[in-house]
């Protein structure tokens, strides 16, 4: 495997980590109006991700930095062409992060409800737009001979991309609700399992439609079909395990669903990194979008040293905060 190909899959790994980890953060935020009967419930839900949400979000920063260093042409085309969509994602992430920090600063219910709304919107917008962005990348967008995007924001909101956005929105929502069931107790835990069961059925139908549509775009690549099939099986297994009350296994298979689906999309994309829908000659590929061999070599040694440390530190963080969050914890803290 040459270095550009290696770094294509490292970037894929980083986005897998981001969507699996920040995905359930988005889901918890979107679940606030569905599961938060009162302020204590909402505080419990927010506290399930309180110690880890910012660490989860750093994966997208590392992914973006790696994309910039390893594939500068891809980075330039993506961030210039999808500028408005990515700006909306950035603003939503800022609103969500601010809300986590400021929500508890006043006891006033209106103050809290406004920040709750910001958490909901700041979770739903990225969950939708990340799917729209990746679906457009896989499908291809109009590029000129200089690899510049020639469309606009409306062109990105095509039926296939919107279906991709709806798929990630539902996947992350279900993923987050399963995390709530895993990390809480009592009535909230029971209601989360019920909501995950209902949302899971809709997610299975929508995700299946998106994966089948993508199969046509990927020309029924055997590797894509294998990964997409495994993702579908993992999603069904997650739904069945949730119905049986095994939250840990259900959440694990939900995470596997997202990981396999993201890998399937990168497989459908390979060896292109930004296909040109108007003229294949204008497409960006691993070969013409990558940095020099020297740059990729230095990056490879850096990744070999630091990636295991990052994964180990994150695993340790989750182990430290592994216990369930209950209403009693919240009410005791209030005193």
From TrEMBL:
GO molecular-function term, one example from the UniProt record: electron transfer activity
Superkingdom to which the source organism belongs: Bacteria
Annotated localization: Cell membrane
Keywords per UniProt: Cell membrane, Electron transport, Heme, Iron, Membrane, Metal-binding, Transmembrane, Transmembrane helix, Transport
Main location: membrane
GO CC annotation, single: plasma membrane
Transmembrane segments: 6-32, 74-95, 115-139, 159-183, 195-217, 223-241, 248-270, 298-321
UniProt record, GO biological process: aerobic electron transport chain
Membrane protein topology class: Multi-pass membrane protein
Pfam families from the UniProt entry: Cyt_bd_oxida_II
InterPro entries according to UniProt: Cyt-d_oxidase_su2 (IPR003317)
Family to which this protein belongs: Belongs to the cytochrome ubiquinol oxidase subunit 2 family.
Protein name: Cytochrome d ubiquinol oxidase subunit II
Organism name: Orlajensenia flava
Source taxonomy: Bacteria, Bacillati, Actinomycetota, Actinomycetes, Micrococcales
């Amino acid at each position: 495997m040459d270095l550009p190909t290696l770094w294509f899959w490292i970037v894929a790994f980083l986005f897998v980590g981001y969507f699996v980890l920040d995905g359930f953060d988005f889901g918890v935020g979107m679940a606030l109006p569905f599961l938060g009967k009162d302020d204590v419930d909402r505080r419990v839900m927010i506290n399930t991700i309180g110690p880890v949400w910012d660490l989860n979000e750093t994966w997208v920063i590392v992914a973006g930095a790696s994309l910039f260093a390893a594939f500068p042409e891809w980075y330039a085309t993506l961030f210039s062409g999808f500028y408005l969509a990515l700006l909306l994602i950035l603003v939503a992430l800022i609103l969500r992060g601010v809300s986590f920090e400021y929500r508890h600063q006043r006891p006033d219910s209106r103050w809290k409800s406004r920040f709750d709304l910001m958490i909901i919107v700041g979770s739903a917008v990225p969950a939708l737009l990340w799917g729209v962005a990746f679906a457009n990348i896989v499908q291809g967008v109009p590029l000129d001979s200089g690899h510049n995007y020639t469309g606009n924001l409306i062109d990105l909101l095509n039926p296939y991309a919107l279906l991709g956005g709806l798929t990630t929105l539902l996947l992350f929502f279900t993923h987050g609700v399963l995390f709530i069931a895993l990390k809480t107790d009592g009535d909230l835990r029971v209601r989360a399992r019920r909501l995950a069961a209902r949302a899971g059925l809709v997610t299975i139908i929508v995700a299946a439609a998106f994966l089948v549509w993508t199969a046509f775009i990927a020309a029924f690549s055997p590797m894509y079909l294998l990964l997409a099939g495994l993702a579908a099986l993992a999603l069904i297994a997650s739904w069945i395990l949730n119905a049986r009350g095994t939250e840990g296994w259900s959440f694990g298979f939900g995470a596997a669903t997202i990981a396999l689906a993201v890998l399937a999309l990168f497989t459908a994309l390979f060896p292109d990194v930004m296909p040109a829908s108007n003229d294949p000659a204008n497409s960006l590929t691993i070969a013409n979008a990558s940095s020099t061999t020297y740059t990729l070599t230095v990056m490879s040694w850096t990744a070999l040293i630091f990636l295991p440390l990052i994964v180990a530190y994150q695993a340790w963080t989750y182990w430290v905060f592994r216990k369930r969050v209950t209403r009693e914890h919240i009410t005791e803290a209030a005193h």
